[in-house]
Amino acid sequence: MYKIAVTISLITLIPVIQLSGQTLTLNPYSKTGLGLLENVGNISNPGMGGSTLWMSNRNALNISNPASLSLLDTLTFVLEMGIKNQFSYMSIPGASRSTSQANLNYFSFGFRGTKHWTAGISLIPITSRGYKILDRETASTIGTIDKYYVGSGGLNAIAVANNFDITPDFSAGISVRYLFGKLEETNTLILQNIGTSYNTQQGIKDQISDFDYQIGLRYRIPDAENSSYSIGVVFTPKSNISGKRNSIKGTTKGTNLWSTDDNIFIDIIAADTNKTISYDKPFSIALGIGKTIMNRYSYGIDYTFQNWESTNFENTKNLHRIAAGISYIPQWNSATSYFKRTTYKFGAFFESSNIRVKETNINIAGIGVGVGMPIKRGIYSLDIDCQLGQMGTHTNDQIKDFYARMSLKFRFSEIWFYKPKYD
What we know:
A 14-stranded antiparallel beta barrel has the order 2-3-4-5-6-7-8-11-12-13-14-15-16-17. By secondary structure, it is mainly beta.
């Protein structure tokens, strides 16, 4: 048990260090609010469009619903880790740009502690911020004015989920999440036609550290032998997340447009050190309904609502998201064909996001496909999922982002706590 505890501690620490220092996106829309929202369903099951709230599996984890751990086998330890690579082609009328990024997607492990209690711990991204924007204006008196906006960072969560089996078909769960991360902004104004002028620059660094929680429910309705319907609900109450802010604003001749750290300020207009700040985090509710025939196929649909209009952020609106997906196994116990034991996944989603720019709603839509490949008789498995999607529109000169995302998820499932009677 000591070796197990040390191993878990080490492999948990590595993703925390890596994820807390990453910029997970390069998208100008991430300037709004806390950054681009990372849908948990899309993180764990993008091949099915992110439809996950209703799902539960004996040898897999569903990090989107804390009440989904009820089917984990007694004495079984499950560990999952995902990585993501995304290619984006962003365009506005007359210009375009492509980017590519790879990073850790999530990390999770879970186990059944007693007959009626199951636990899981996950490290997941919540939001991501990464943008570099140039806004150029021309004034008749002073000439060209360049405004540079640069941002980076994001919020992550360490979630501790506890699932309680109320009846054989009904479970309830609560996930307590520690939210942490950095949100950084650097804004610079340069008067290009006045050579002796100073630049005006502002740097803001927010360090977020707080807690929130989610409540999940899952109800299973038996239909026939090895067949059932499932309903999953996840509720997240509105909360305030707090942190500390270090900021400075003033005039400088420094040349670093991406950060204030290397620039010497000639005149400081305003500055704060360890100022207490608070961000609104909205109420949200998500509902999923699906059907499963064990070792054959699953299909379902999710709906999510987030009330961003009740928060203190500008350029935001309420979020609505719908996702649907299906998975299929031709013959799970085939002794002659590996491809018959493979899981095939298909899905799609549409999201009216929480972003509104210049009275233009920013929507996201995509399709997904994936395969789940068993390794070593199901003890290990590798999932490869791909998504193609679009965010935004050219309406009102907004940015359209076509993206292709590939996710790899490795799963380990083993009986760790069983002591054999004979050596």
